[in-house]
Amino acid sequence: MEYDPIKRSLGKVFNKSPFTRKIFYHLLDILLLRTWHIKKSVKEWVKKTNGEVEILDAGSGFGQYSYYLSGLKLKCNITSVDVKEEQVEDCNNFFKQIGRTNVEFSVGDLTTFRKKDKFDLILCVDVMEHILEDVKVFENYCYSMKPGGMLLISTPSDQGGSDVHDHDGEESFIGEHVRDGYGLHEIGEKLFQAGFTKVDAWYVYGTPGQISWRLSMKYPIQMLGVSKLFFIILPFYYLITFPFCLLLNCIDLYGKHKSGTGLIVEARKD
Predict the structure, then answer these.
(1) I need a surface site. Which of 11, 120, 131, 161 has the fewest CB within 10 A?
(2) Beta-bridge partner residues of 160
(3) For residue range 203-228, what is the model confidence (pLDDT) as tens digits?
């Protein structure tokens, strides 16, 4: 299923004003379980950080993570890179309107983007599954990261990432992905190959997270894919499902999972 057109439609609805844009970001923060896991890792990183830092939001998309990072009690400059020109222009306009001058969005290809020893933190959320030349991108991240810095990745795993069900013949729910997900050891080996010296990776989206994702994201997107009229019933749908999704997200965030459809990866270099 191609869901980029649906994302663009949602963006147009919420981009009417800075106020509605902020509401959109907060809704994504609540509904997207990966945001819960990313924020948990970022908060741990911030505790160990002193002074002014440089951050790369690699594949910044709607800009929700740049918005979150720029609002932390942290002296930081954020470089946000995405391949979509229209999205970059839109984000620059929004951040200018709200006075977040420590963030700059630019059009860039992560297979060629390199800044020698520049960044203390590189954030890469649900991007690598869209890029075929993944080792090249990891090498660029390593080259661009300061010694002692951290690369934080969220990506689907090979345990059913992208909601693939080979046993019943279904295709990936997300048709834009070039791979369905990474193996836990596979992504570690690729990061070591790229020059990183320490890699920690673990499963997220265990059973609770998978149920939450279907309720909060998959089924609503499928409904909107059938007809935009489902925008009308979405508030009532979420009124029923939202409390269950919150509970399931909490269980997933603080639980340990032997398997899961997502991975969180922290990589460092000496």
Answers:
(1) 11
(2) none
(3) 999 999 999 999 998 888 888 878 87
